[in-house]
Amino acid sequence: NEDALKHAMFHRAFGCGSNQEMFAKITELQPMIDEFSAVKHLDAGDPPIYLRYGGPISKRDGVHDSRFGLGFKKKADAVGANCSLNITGEEAYPAPKGDWILKMLELSK
């Protein structure tokens, strides 16, 4: 999502003075980008993950865009990580109910 990459936190995190400088160095920065990316480190041994986004999915929201959650959930499912995704207003990704957190943490059966 190019809109997300326009946020100053990215170029500052890479020690660049601007987005233009960051994009000019993107090949050089790729190993660091991969290291920063949580999705690159997902595996089945991770603790339960809960992601919550405002919706709907069609709403573009920069660094808080629900499409990041969709991609993260897809990768988590592929590697066997326990990931719950909630996107406000999306029936396919409802808010959890009841004692879901206890069940997720295996504190309740």
Layout: helices, strands, pairs:
Layout: H1 2-5, H2 8-13, H3 19-24, H4 26-36, E1 49-53, H5 66-79, E2 83-87, H6 100-104
Parallel strand pairs: 1-2
Task: Describe the protein's architecture and organization.
The chain has helices at 2-5, 8-13, 19-24, 26-36, 66-79, 100-104, and strands at 49-53, 83-87. By secondary structure, it is mainly alpha-helical. The protein starts with a helix and ends in a 5-residue tail after the last helix. The longest helix is centred in the middle third of the chain and has 14 residues, at 66-79. Helices cover 42% and strands 9% of the residues. The chain is globular and about 50 Å long.
Nutshell version of this structure?
With 109 residues, the protein is mainly alpha-helical. The chain has helices at 2-5, 8-13, 19-24, 26-36, 66-79, 100-104, and strands at residues 49-53, 83-87.
Strand residue content: 5-15%
- Unreliable runs, pLDDT <50, ≥5 residues? none
- Number of separate strands: 2
Question: What is the end-to-end distance?
Answer: 39 Å
Mean pLDDT: 87
SSE order:
HHHHEHEH
Please give the order of strands in the largest beta sheet. Answer: 1-2
Structural class: mainly alpha
**Secondary structure tally, helices:** 6
Portion of residues in helices?
A: 40-55%
Shape, principal axes of CA atoms: globular
Major sheet description: 2 strands, parallel
